[in-house]
Design goal:
149 residues, four-stranded antiparallel beta sheet, 4 strands, alpha+beta
Protein backbone atom coordinates (compact mmCIF):
# COMPACT_ATOMS: atom_id res chain seq x y z
CA UNK A 1 0.00 0.00 0.00
CA UNK A 2 1.37 3.43 -0.91
CA UNK A 3 1.87 5.97 1.85
CA UNK A 4 -0.13 9.13 1.46
CA UNK A 5 1.40 12.46 2.29
CA UNK A 6 -0.98 14.61 4.31
CA UNK A 7 -2.16 17.63 2.39
CA UNK A 8 -1.57 21.04 3.86
CA UNK A 9 -4.84 22.89 4.38
CA UNK A 10 -3.26 26.32 4.61
CA UNK A 11 -0.28 27.63 2.66
CA UNK A 12 2.93 28.01 4.66
CA UNK A 13 3.54 31.51 5.96
CA UNK A 14 6.75 33.13 4.82
CA UNK A 15 9.23 33.75 7.63
CA UNK A 16 9.40 37.39 8.70
CA UNK A 17 12.49 39.37 7.84
CA UNK A 18 14.63 39.15 10.95
CA UNK A 19 16.64 42.14 12.04
CA UNK A 20 20.24 41.04 12.28
CA UNK A 21 21.76 41.56 15.71
CA UNK A 22 25.20 40.08 16.17
CA UNK A 23 26.08 38.39 19.47
CA UNK A 24 28.73 41.04 20.18
CA UNK A 25 26.49 44.01 19.29
CA UNK A 26 24.76 46.04 22.02
CA UNK A 27 21.56 44.35 23.15
CA UNK A 28 18.38 46.10 21.94
CA UNK A 29 16.99 46.02 25.51
CA UNK A 30 19.25 48.93 26.46
CA UNK A 31 21.11 47.38 29.39
CA UNK A 32 24.46 47.99 27.71
CA UNK A 33 25.57 44.35 27.53
CA UNK A 34 26.32 42.45 24.34
CA UNK A 35 23.23 40.79 22.84
CA UNK A 36 24.69 37.27 23.14
CA UNK A 37 25.39 37.70 26.87
CA UNK A 38 22.11 39.52 27.52
CA UNK A 39 18.78 38.73 25.80
CA UNK A 40 20.33 36.52 23.13
CA UNK A 41 20.97 33.73 25.64
CA UNK A 42 17.28 33.76 26.61
CA UNK A 43 16.21 33.74 22.95
CA UNK A 44 18.52 30.77 22.29
CA UNK A 45 17.01 28.84 25.23
CA UNK A 46 20.33 28.76 27.14
CA UNK A 47 18.74 30.37 30.22
CA UNK A 48 15.43 31.69 31.56
CA UNK A 49 14.92 35.33 32.47
CA UNK A 50 15.36 35.48 36.27
CA UNK A 51 12.98 38.41 36.85
CA UNK A 52 9.85 39.88 35.29
CA UNK A 53 11.85 42.92 34.17
CA UNK A 54 14.47 40.72 32.49
CA UNK A 55 11.70 38.85 30.70
CA UNK A 56 10.07 42.10 29.57
CA UNK A 57 13.41 43.37 28.23
CA UNK A 58 14.05 40.08 26.44
CA UNK A 59 10.58 40.18 24.88
CA UNK A 60 11.22 43.73 23.64
CA UNK A 61 14.46 42.45 22.07
CA UNK A 62 12.52 39.53 20.56
CA UNK A 63 10.21 42.03 18.86
CA UNK A 64 13.29 43.84 17.52
CA UNK A 65 14.73 40.64 16.02
CA UNK A 66 11.33 39.12 15.08
CA UNK A 67 11.78 36.04 17.27
CA UNK A 68 8.22 34.69 17.20
CA UNK A 69 9.04 31.32 18.86
CA UNK A 70 10.51 33.09 21.90
CA UNK A 71 7.58 35.47 22.19
CA UNK A 72 5.09 32.58 22.10
CA UNK A 73 7.18 30.45 24.47
CA UNK A 74 7.24 33.28 27.05
CA UNK A 75 3.51 34.11 26.82
CA UNK A 76 1.15 32.72 29.48
CA UNK A 77 -0.74 29.72 28.10
CA UNK A 78 -4.16 31.20 28.93
CA UNK A 79 -3.54 34.49 27.05
CA UNK A 80 -1.15 33.35 24.28
CA UNK A 81 -2.26 34.12 20.71
CA UNK A 82 -1.79 31.50 17.98
CA UNK A 83 0.93 33.60 16.32
CA UNK A 84 2.68 36.96 16.41
CA UNK A 85 2.29 39.28 13.45
CA UNK A 86 5.24 41.61 12.77
CA UNK A 87 4.54 44.88 10.97
CA UNK A 88 7.26 45.27 8.30
CA UNK A 89 7.02 49.08 8.62
CA UNK A 90 7.68 49.02 12.39
CA UNK A 91 11.21 49.60 13.71
CA UNK A 92 11.75 49.50 17.48
CA UNK A 93 14.26 52.17 18.46
CA UNK A 94 14.57 52.17 22.25
CA UNK A 95 13.26 50.96 25.58
CA UNK A 96 12.88 52.73 28.91
CA UNK A 97 11.69 50.83 31.98
CA UNK A 98 9.96 53.32 34.25
CA UNK A 99 8.82 51.03 37.08
CA UNK A 100 9.02 47.41 38.18
CA UNK A 101 6.94 46.02 41.05
CA UNK A 102 7.69 42.61 42.55
CA UNK A 103 8.72 40.12 39.85
CA UNK A 104 11.94 38.96 41.55
CA UNK A 105 13.14 35.45 42.37
CA UNK A 106 11.02 35.59 45.53
CA UNK A 107 7.72 36.52 43.84
CA UNK A 108 5.20 34.70 41.66
CA UNK A 109 3.77 37.84 40.01
CA UNK A 110 5.10 41.20 38.95
CA UNK A 111 4.43 44.26 36.83
CA UNK A 112 6.74 46.27 34.61
CA UNK A 113 5.88 49.70 33.24
CA UNK A 114 7.84 50.80 30.20
CA UNK A 115 8.00 53.07 27.18
CA UNK A 116 9.04 51.41 23.90
CA UNK A 117 9.96 53.86 21.17
CA UNK A 118 9.55 53.09 17.49
CA UNK A 119 9.21 54.47 14.01
CA UNK A 120 6.35 53.33 11.83
CA UNK A 121 6.60 54.22 8.18
CA UNK A 122 9.28 56.74 9.17
CA UNK A 123 7.08 58.46 11.78
CA UNK A 124 8.25 58.30 15.42
CA UNK A 125 5.99 57.00 18.16
CA UNK A 126 5.95 55.43 21.60
CA UNK A 127 4.09 52.59 23.26
CA UNK A 128 3.59 53.11 27.02
CA UNK A 129 2.42 49.95 28.76
CA UNK A 130 2.09 48.35 32.19
CA UNK A 131 2.65 44.63 31.68
CA UNK A 132 1.69 41.81 34.05
CA UNK A 133 3.90 38.78 34.51
CA UNK A 134 3.63 35.57 36.51
CA UNK A 135 5.56 32.39 37.00
CA UNK A 136 4.34 29.38 35.05
CA UNK A 137 6.10 26.09 35.79
CA UNK A 138 8.86 28.09 37.53
CA UNK A 139 9.56 30.45 34.61
CA UNK A 140 8.40 34.04 34.13
CA UNK A 141 5.78 34.56 31.40
CA UNK A 142 3.97 37.59 30.03
CA UNK A 143 0.24 37.61 30.92
CA UNK A 144 -1.12 40.84 29.46
CA UNK A 145 -0.67 44.58 29.43
CA UNK A 146 -2.55 47.83 29.76
CA UNK A 147 -1.74 50.77 27.53
CA UNK A 148 -1.11 54.04 29.30
CA UNK A 149 -1.95 57.36 27.67
Amino acid sequence: MARRTPRRTTPPRPAPAVSAVRADAPCPCGRGDAYGACCGRFHAGEAHAPTAESLMRSRYSAFVVHDEPYLLRTWAARTRPPRVEFDPDMRWTGLEVTEATDGTLFHTTGTVTFVARYTHGGEPGALHERSRFEKEDGAWVYVDGTFID
